[in-house]
Design goal:
The chain has 390 residues and is of the alpha/beta class. It folds into two domains: 132 residues, Aspartate Aminotransferase, domain 1 (Alpha-Beta Complex), CATH 3.90.1150.10; 231 residues, Aspartate Aminotransferase, domain 2. The protein has 15 helices and 14 strands. The chain has a seven-stranded mixed beta sheet with strand order 3-9-8-7-6-4-5, sandwiched between helices. A four-stranded antiparallel beta sheet has the order 10-11-14-13, with helices on one face. The longest helix is centred in the C-terminal third of the chain and has 22 residues. The termini are far apart. The structure holds pyridoxal-5'-phosphate. The site of pyridoxal-5'-phosphate (PLP) has 14 residues, from helix 5.
Length: 390
């Protein structure tokens, strides 16, 4: 087996697909130190700049002082601390749903929830561009797994009409992580009502950013229904780690009993929950942060003067710049890196062939000047690299 593994790694290297981890020597922020170098970074999902917020650091320090550093047991034994409980109540109230349940990561939440809510004889309907962990949750659940073309409501409806599954669950990213666009959630909810299906919304990139006071994608569309099961991660805009699922009380009660990644796992330390409760406060009172983020998005669009490379239409913090070939995307990313600017190149299979891109991720921590610097570097790079590549 070890020989086979080595062979596959060698092949990856030969194909230019070997991925490397950078060593970070600073907090996650707009300016970072990676592999010993200073960079202006457009790589993180820390959309509100909370990952290094002094108030959250102080909260975590204080909470570690009075609750320790480890949960010590699963939630159903003795690991469910008052801080975990307070966070769940805070989150449910914030997203205006009856109840919430906190998981250690978004990946675990999706696997746990899909595995618990549907199984053999049921069906999941998933957008083709969904995050990998929704796919994994789907496979793990043993339900039929149908994928439909990106945000194609008509294609989804056809699948629903043809389905004879007992329970039907539409599972989608609300904001697509590599495209930045928003799913047509109101259309999906209408289909749910029409075909007796349920809607599982993964709002990893909308929570904290979209909607009234950052309440997320449901608030963005003003959607409420007992057919919705909402999930969001807490390591992106919330700046810490973890995830939560929110919906009807019966759904949460059922998950506490049956979601295996919840039941058989040690919860994240209570101090993390205490920190997250404070983070939700900052999100709720963070209209100025979101206004600044919107200003940065507009600033980027206004300052880019590109002929061949194109920003995808996105109104979120994720601003993908389509470059085309893998080679061009990697060259561009490397070129920017030499200028002290980090923007990741995203290639197939993460995105479709010939749509290799830079995933520009903006954060309220950036200044207008940071974004203008990026735009001007891109404007100059297009002229330079197009000449070099042709
Ligand atoms: C990041 C992400 C996840 C995984 O969340 P983690 O907490 O990082 O494990 C799930 N879904 C989507 C859409 C994501 O972007």
């Amino acid at each position: 087996m070890l020989n086979a593994l080595q062979k596959q790694l060698d092949q990856r290297k030969a194909d230019g697909l070997m991925r490397q981890r950078r060593l970070l020597d600073s907090p996650q922020a707009e300016y970072i130190v990676a592999n010993g170098q200073d960079y202006l970074s457009f790589c993180s999902n820390d959309y509100l700049g909370l990952a290094n917020h002094p108030k959250l650091i102080a909260t975590m320090q204080a909470a570690a002082g009075d609750s320790g550093v480890g949960s010590g047991a699963s939630n159903l034994i003795t690991g469910h601390h008052r801080y975990h409980d307070a966070l769940e109540k805070k989150l449910a109230k914030f997203v205006e749903l009856p109840a919430a349940l906190v998981f250690s990561t978004g990946y675990m939440a999706n696997i746990g929830v899909l595995g618990a809510l549907v199984g053999r004889g049921d069906a999941i309907f998933a957008d083709k561009l969904n995050h990998a962990c929704l796919n994994d949750g789907g496979y793990y659940s043993l339900a039929e797994f149908h994928r439909f073309a990106h945000s194609d409501v008509a294609a989804l409806e056809k699948l629903l009409i043809a389905s004879t599954a007992k329970h039907k669950l539409i599972a989608v990213d609300a904001v697509f992580s590599m495209d930045g666009d928003i799913a047509p959630l109101p259309d999906y909810l209408r289909l749910c009502e029409q075909y007796d299906a349920y809607l599982y919304v993964d709002d990893a990139h909308g929570f904290g950013v979209l909607g009234q006071h950052g309440k997320g994608s449901l608030s963005h569309f003003d959607l409420a229904s007992p057919r919705i099961i909402y999930m969001a991660t807490l390591g992106k805009a919330a700046g810490v780690a973890g995830a939560f699922v929110s919906g009807q009380q019966v759904v949460i009660d059922y998950l506490i009993q049956t979601a295996k990644s919840y039941v058989y796992s040690t919860p994240a330390p209570p101090a993390l929950s205490a920190t997250l409760t404070e983070s939700v406060n900052l999100i709720e009172n963070g209209d100025d942060l979101r206004a600044h983020l919107q200003h940065l998005i507009t600033t980027l669009k206004q300052h880019l003067r590109l002929k061949n490379w194109k920003l995808l239409p996105s109104e979120t913090a994720v601003q993908p710049l389509i470059v085309g070939s893998n080679h061009a995307a990697v060259s561009l990313s490397e070129h920017l890196q030499k200028l002290g600017i980090l923007v990741p190149a995203i290639r197939p299979p993460t995105v479709p062939v010939n749509t290799a891109r830079l995933r520009i991720s903006l954060s309220a921590a950036h200044s207008e000047q940071d974004v203008i610097k990026l735009a001007e570097a891109l404007n100059a790079a297009e002229i330079m690299l197009t000449e070099k590549l042709t």
